[in-house]
Design brief:
By secondary structure, this protein is of the alpha+beta class. Helices cover 20% and strands 31% of the residues. A hairpin with a 4-residue loop joins strand 4 and strand 5. Helix 1 crosses helix 2.
């Protein structure tokens, strides 16, 4: 299978020189998603839980555009400007994922695009 660029209006458009996702064979690489509302390209209003949910909603939209779902996630990487939010990410994640959970890393970072506190990217495996 040839490399395919994944694009959907149901997730924020790229704010830089990258694609929302790239499918290469059965593997889909979803670029980092931040809590932007796709229709406005503005950061979602609300608390940190609302931001984390928006990120998962954006990841789900791209996964669906690629022909899969969040259940196909093999690896999830979470970037946080404050690792004290990690328990909240775990809590919200259970609203989007069932066991067995994907492999995951959490990385503390100094800053993220648009001054947000959370970003996530994912690698999915989707059978043809």
């Amino acid at each position: 299978m040839a490399r395919t660029i994944i694009r959907t209006d149901a997730a924020p458009q790229a704010i830089g020189t990258y694609s929302q996702a790239v499918r290469d064979g059965d593997t889909v690489y979803i670029s980092g998603q931040i809590p932007l509302v796709p229709e406005t390209m503005e950061v979602v209003e609300g608390d940190m839980a609302a931001h984390v949910r928006r990120v998962f909603d954006n990841l789900r939209a791209v996964a669906e555009a690629a022909g899969g779902s969040l259940a196909d996630t093999a690896k999830l990487t979470v970037y946080l400007t404050d690792l004290n939010h990690f328990p909240l990410v775990n809590q919200v994640m259970t609203e989007y994922f069932d066991e067995p959970y994907p492999a995951r890393a959490a990385v503390g970072v100094a800053a993220l695009p648009k001054g947000v506190a959370v970003e996530m990217d994912a690698i999915l495996t989707i059978s043809p």
